[in-house]
Design goal:
Length: 515
């Protein structure tokens, strides 16, 4: 009876979500119809606006999870709080810093000069937008966080080839995008793992963790402010204030240094009330994580809303001006479709991916989530300077995997140490005494104890069988392999499947609209 009641509630909520999504698209349709219904080709713009709204909903459902998922998984934010913060800052980023002009062909993946017919260009963009939206919808249902940018790139590529042949594609650009599939998660994972190891060495491996945190946490927060200010200037605000890397780094450093002097006494005061354990120290990272979630959402709204409105802006320009352009102005109504659609999609369908990113790949505490956020920002800055079109989704998820695999390695190494200690001593009491001393020792002292133990072990002339036994250590898996394989597969097929769907949709739309 209880299961039936739960299923009924679940079905009602599902109908509510679908109904609200449809209502949003109907409102978009009615507005565009009332404004542009009498314009020649206005029906195309109406159709494109509805598809653009659908795309925005799916971006909110899938892509935004990367910005707030770690904060939710570490319990720095509640799910409701994360959705509210992300919705506000995503919309603010899109409207305030989204820019007045957007590239109609994302990443220059095809040459618009080879499409001379306005109608063909409009059909191409509609097919690309719809294919990308459908794939994002499928990926969200699967619980796989994928790249919105790669989805729309695949859509434009497939529809472009269908409209103009293989010669229309800019294959060198596509090659750089393909390389980014590997670089984004690897770089994000490595940077996140390095940050986590630094935190462990400088704070959690110390005997007096509170004292260590008092010294190190203000530096980490200042470093975060420095990096995120640089990130925001280069990515979030680049369309309203363009600065070079040196200027962005200089401004970020000045703000970070100022924050350091303000935050140091506050951290010292907060740390003085904490117990000397890892759980207590974690609480010092709560505010930095909330700050990072807000800032990442703002930058995402300023940049990636173009994935929803770029093709729509192109269609709007093509319908009103009867031409094909490489860059198009973004009317306020188009930006609002993207901003509001992303916020609604996040609120209705975002929780599933937020949980996946935040807690289902690997367990995140606040320190680990902090490292993920830092890695996401640093990777984007590095890639921007190298001219690599990386995915923020791949970077953030790769950082989470990096943190998880480092945890696995450290757990494995620690278990190996314990096994070595247990094998060396015959007397259980001696083992217990040694382990007690070992666990209370500093990281450096542990190293010396193990070296001494190793020298003594070598004198015992262990047999090959004994040494082999020492290596048989249980490896604890802290990263869910099923999620790793599912997400990796989804990343690999995103561009091909979006391209194939877009090509099929292009031929379908053209067939329907040709006289």
């Amino acid at each position: 009876m209880t299961n039936q009641k739960n299923n009924a509630v679940s079905n009602q909520f599902e109908f509510f979500r679908i109904g609200l999504s449809i209502l949003f698209m109907v409102v978009v349709m009615l507005y565009v119809k009332s404004t542009f219904g009498n314009v020649q080709g206005g029906y195309l713009l109406i159709s494109a606006a509805v598809i653009g709204g659908y795309m925005a909903l799916n971006i909110g459902a899938n892509d935004v999870a990367n910005n707030v998922g770690p904060a939710v998984g570490s319990k720095a934010l509640t799910l409701t709080g994360a959705i509210i913060i992300a919705a506000i800052f995503e919309a603010s980023g899109a409207i305030l810093a989204g820019g007045e002009v957007v590239s109609t062909i994302k990443k220059g993946i095809i040459d618009p000069g080879m499409i001379n017919d306005t109608d063909t260009f409009i059909w191409l963009m509609m097919a690309a937008l719809l294919a990308a939206a459908i794939w994002l919808n499928i990926a969200t249902i699967m619980g796989a966080p994928v790249s919105t940018t790669h989805s729309i790139v695949g859509g434009v590529l497939g529809a472009g080839i269908a409209a103009g042949g293989f010669g229309i594609a800019n294959w060198p650009v596509f090659g750089k995008i393909a390389v980014s599939w590997i670089i984004s998660p690897l770089l994000g994972g490595i940077i996140a793992a390095v940050f986590l190891y630094i935190i462990k060495r400088t704070i959690t491996y110390k005997k007096d963790m509170v004292k260590a945190a008092t010294q190190i946490v203000p530096i980490l927060i200042a470093l975060m402010i420095w990096i995120f200010t640089t990130y925001l200037l280069m990515k979030g605000l680049k369309k309203i204030w363009e600065v070079d890397l040196v200027m962005a780094i200089s401004i970020g450093f000045a703000i970070g240094l100022t924050v350091y002097y303000f935050v140091r006494p506050a951290i010292a005061k907060a740390a003085s009330k904490l117990e000397n354990n890892k759980h207590s120290i974690n609480s010092l990272f709560t505010m930095p994580l909330i700050f990072s979630a807000a800032l990442l959402s703002f930058a995402h709204g300023a940049n990636d809303v173009a994935n929803a409105v770029g093709p729509l802006a192109a269609i709007n320009d093509a319908v009103l001006n009867a031409g094909v352009v490489a860059k198009a102005s973004i009317p306020l109504w188009v930006m609002l479709v993207g901003a509001v659609g992303i916020s609604i999609g996040l609120a209705l369908y975002g929780p599933k991916l937020i949980r996946t990113v935040g807690s289902e790949i690997t367990e995140l505490d606040k320190m680990r989530a902090f490292c993920v956020s830092m890695a996401a920002a640093i990777t984007v800055i590095i890639a921007s300077q190298l001219g690599l079109p990386i995915s923020s989704t791949h970077t953030a998820v790769g950082a989470i995997f990096g943190v998880g695999f480092l945890r696995e390695y450290l757990k494995f190494s620690y278990k190996k140490m314990i096994n070595r200690i247990e094998e060396h001593h015959d007397d259980p009491k001696k083992v217990s005494a040694f382990l007690t001393k070992f666990r209370k020792s500093s990281f450096e002292k542990k190293g010396k104890m193990l070296k001494l133990l190793k020298r003594k072990s070598s004198k015992n002339n262990l047999t090959k069988k004994d040494r082999k036994k020492l290596k048989k250590v249980y490896r604890q898996e802290l990263v869910k392999r099923s999620h790793l394989y599912k997400i990796a597969t989804a990343w690999i097929i995103t561009v091909p499947i979006s391209a194939l769907m877009a090509a099929m949709l292009f031929f379908t739309i053209r067939g329907m609209l040709l006289p």
